[in-house]
Amino acid sequence: DTEVTQTPKHLVMGMTNKKSLKCEQHMGHRAMYWYKQKAKKPPELMFVYSYEKLSINESVPSRFSPECPNSSLLNLHLHALQPEDSALYLCASSQAGTGGYGYTFGSGTRLTVV
Amino acid sequence: RKEVEQDPGPFNVPEGATVAFNCTYSNSASQSFFWYRQDCRKEPKLLMSVYSSGNEDGRFTAQLNRASQYISLLIRDSKLSDSATYLCVVNRNNDYKLSFGAGTTVTVRA
Questions:
Q1: Does B55 touch chain A (CB under 8 A)?
Q2: Long-range Cβ contact pairs of A78-81 (< 8 A, separation 24 or more)
């Protein structure tokens, strides 16, 4: 299995809703990532988990809350989002240690905040 | 100065043509280099890693010039399916973070 699976593929939520994005990989990768991508822009790093511990938080607002229940799963909990948070949210994973092998990306969740 | 800079294009080329473009990076200590391809409204997919000696994968050739701090991608015999945005990606310090260029858009026309 060489895939990163993200659900849901599309999500529309109101500013008062609580929702979660899910990501799963079975490649034995021990680093997992959340990225945000706006149209015609490169992906922006949000969070890095290494061996199930949060190792990087790129000053992301607290309305985004990551969680790594085990080595295969990564969640992103959303609460009280703003319309400007509408974007493609990408999960990625990489081999342990570094990004030196590149990432494998999931197909993303396209989020619209109304 | 941005860490990774790319010519945004677009590069509009006919089928069968050769197209090449570069990417420059600012951190001389950068360790690993990649080209990713991203289709419209899809996720980035690894096209190829870039090695010091240069490397080729079918119609795609990547080169690294550490002295001038740039990498290049050349596409030979362009196909319609090569139309995409090509992201230059650099791993700066052998840590977890990858730095992305803004992408170069290539459109291959029939």
A1: no
A2: A78/A13, A78/A17, A78/A18, A78/A19, A78/A20, A78/A21, A78/A111, A79/A17, A79/A18, A80/A15, A80/A16, A81/A13, A81/A15, A81/A17, A81/A111, A81/A113
Size of interface A-B (CB pairs under 8 A): 60
Distance from CA of A15 to the nearest CA of B (A): 24
Alpha-carbon span B96 to A72, nearest angstrom: 17
Instruction: Determine the Cα–Cα distance for residues B63 and A61; give it in Å rounded to an integer.
Output: 39
Block means of pLDDT (10 residues each) for chain B, length 110 residues? 89 97 92 94 93 92 95 98 96 80 96
B31 part of contact set with chain A, CB < 8 Å: yes
Question: What phi, psi does B50 have (nearest 5°)?
Answer: -115, 120
pLDDT at B96: 79
Pairing relationship of beta strands A53-57 and A4-7 according to DSSP bridges: unpaired
Sheet strand arrangement including B60-65: B4-6, B19-25, B70-75, B60-65, B55-57
